[in-house]
């Protein structure tokens, strides 16, 4: 009798799964049938916002539906993440998120207005904004090893960042731990302020994106020592990586991707993945991104999920070790 009931329950479960799958597939066949919304966690004008607008322009032509870009800035992206986490999982709300929202905030904020276990549905990791180890040109170092040696002889060297808990901040903390050096963090409100501080000598070093300092490097006011990606960057292929300099497997970058509200049907995510990666494969589009200091990626959903998990583990450890917190 128990076996019979168990068999009936199993059949009901299988039937429910097939029914849900059928509904999701049928829904995906008519998707998209109305305007879509790209949610950007920053104010207009930055690289994430620009990427979202460029992609929206291209996708509107491909999918035949208007894509509206909405900026929901504030609290380091928490407001935008909370909005998307609660959005209807129908594929019409798309989160254009970076490493900060997906991998840093769950550990940086003790309290979030949404469940920390929330898993956004990954579509693709679209671009990477590599970070470069930069120093004020007056600092007498020309390599990562010289920088480490100098920092060991001068404990308390000042480094700047775009704010407490930013990838720029945590990346330098990670470098300090891995290299065995002691530095003092000076947070600023955004890239423009931290760049001015580095150029003016208020701080001696920083991890920063190339567009922020390109002109100062050309003018001889800032010196680049290495890129913090696993491999040399197409943006500056002549520059070594931090890993090449002895800090093995060092990887710090602000990666930007597209994710969907929890529970969004997989066929919908797959459709978006195909459309977005086709845009990313366009040579003209790639060149526009590189000009902005962004490196095209276009990962699979599974690769993106793994990268988010790996980054989350890395930054959780750094946050716990440094005591960084936003509430």
Protein model, in words:
The protein has 11 helices and 10 strands. The chain has 327 residues and is α/β, with parallel strands linked by helices. The protein folds into 2 domains: 181 residues, D-Maltodextrin-Binding Protein, domain 2; 116 residues, Periplasmic binding protein-like II (D-Maltodextrin-Binding Protein, domain 2, 3-Layer(aba) Sandwich), CATH 3.40.190. It is globular, with a radius of gyration of 22 Å. The chain starts with a helix and ends in a 5-residue tail after the last helix. Strands 1, 2, 3, 4, 5, 6, 7, 8, 9 and 10 form a 10-stranded mixed sheet that branches.
Put simply, the count of helices is 11
Number of domains: 2
N-to-C SSE series? HEHEHEHEHEHEHEHEEHHEH
Report the average pLDDT across residues: 91
Strand content: 15-25%
Q: What fraction, in percent, of the residue positions are helical? A: 40-55%
Second-tier CATH architecture of the largest domain: 3-Layer(aba) Sandwich
Query: For the CA atoms, what is the radius of gyration?
Result: 22 Å
Distance between the termini: 56 Å
Low-confidence stretches: 13-21
Determine and state the CATH class of the largest domain: Alpha Beta
Structural class call reads alpha/beta
What would the keywords be for this entry?
D-Maltodextrin-Binding Protein, domain 2; alpha/beta; Bug_dom1; receptor; globular; single chain; BUG; 11 helices; 19% strand; Tripartite-type tricarboxylate transporter receptor subunit TctC; ten-stranded mixed β-sheet; 327 residues
């Amino acid at each position: 009798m128990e076996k019979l009931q168990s068999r009936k329950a199993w059949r009901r479960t299988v039937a429910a799964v097939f029914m849900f799958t059928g509904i999701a597939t049928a829904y995906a066949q008519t998707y998209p049938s109305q305007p879509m919304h790209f949610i950007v966690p920053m104010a207009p004008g930055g690289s994430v916002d620009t990427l979202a607008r460029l992609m929206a322009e291209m996708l509107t032509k491909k999918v035949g539906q208007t894509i509206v870009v909405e900026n929901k800035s504030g609290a380091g992206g928490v407001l935008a993440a909370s909005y998307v986490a609660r959005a209807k999982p129908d594929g019409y709300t798309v989160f254009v998120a970076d490493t900060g929202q997906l991998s840093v905030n769950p550990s940086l904020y003790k309290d979030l207005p949404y469940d920390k276990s929330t898993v956004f549905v990954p579509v693709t990791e679209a671009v990477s904004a590599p970070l470069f180890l930069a120093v004020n040109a007056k600092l007498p170092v020309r390599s990562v090893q010289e920088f480490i040696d100098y920092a060991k002889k001068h404990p308390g060297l000042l480094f700047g960042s775009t704010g407490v808990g930013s990838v720029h901040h945590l990346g330098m903390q990670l470098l300090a731990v891995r290299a065995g050096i002691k530095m003092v963090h000076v947070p600023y409100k955004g890239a423009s302020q931290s760049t001015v501080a580095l150029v003016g000598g208020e701080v001696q070093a920083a991890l920063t994106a190339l567009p922020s300092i390109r002109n100062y490097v050309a003018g001889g006011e800032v010196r680049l020592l290495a890129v913090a990606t696993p491999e040399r960057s197409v943006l500056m292929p002549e520059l070594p990586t931090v890993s090449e300099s002895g800090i093995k497997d060092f990887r710090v970058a602000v990666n930007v991707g597209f994710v969907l509200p929890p529970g969004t049907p997989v066929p919908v995510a797959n459709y978006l993945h195909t459309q977005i990666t086709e845009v990313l494969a366009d040579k003209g589009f790639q060149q526009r991104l590189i000009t902005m200091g962004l490196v095209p990626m276009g990962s699979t959903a599974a690769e993106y999920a793994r990268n988010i998990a790996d980054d989350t583990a890395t930054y959780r450890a750094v946050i716990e070790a440094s005591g960084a917190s936003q509430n």
